[in-house]
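debug: dumping io for the single-chain case to check the tokenizer round-trip. Nothing else runs in this session.
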Amino acid sequence: EMTQRKQKHLFGLAHFDQLTGLPNRTLLLDRLNQAISVASRASRTISLLFIDLDGFKPVNDTYGHGIGDRLLKEVAERLLSCLRDGDTAARIGGDEFVVILIESDLDRAITVAHRILGTLRVPYEFGKKTITSISGSIGIAAYPNHADELDTLITAADNAMYCAKKGGKDRFVVFTPPSEQS
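debug: decoded output
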């Protein structure tokens, strides 16, 4: 029983973000690989949302890392509230999150992105501190429409997120393949 508990603890350390409890990059990649395999066999689509928080660094600088950590935990809860069972929200580092939407076309991904943007804008209350400067930049990519394998799908969503940041933040951008850009 002790060995089993230690193995469970080690699995948790290896696969989950210790701050938010969300899957980490390792578990995200495993789940995304599985989702792509299932989608490929069933001729279905999945959507990937790459989310970077806007306005997070000043929170750490102004209020300290304790409040920054509490804010990241709250963001994780808010992300989960926007998803269906079976979808995955993961924290891949700092203030970056990735969401896998299984059996999701672009219309659903856009709906979820709007929901996430709305929930991130709601003020964060920490005792007497109210933080209203947080929003998100979201990049959306779909399998197999934008990419047909894991690495290129992540890269596509990440590139779209950078376009959202450059476009003024607090928005989402759907990946556009270079061949379709004007």
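debug: round-trip ok. The chain has six helices and seven strands.
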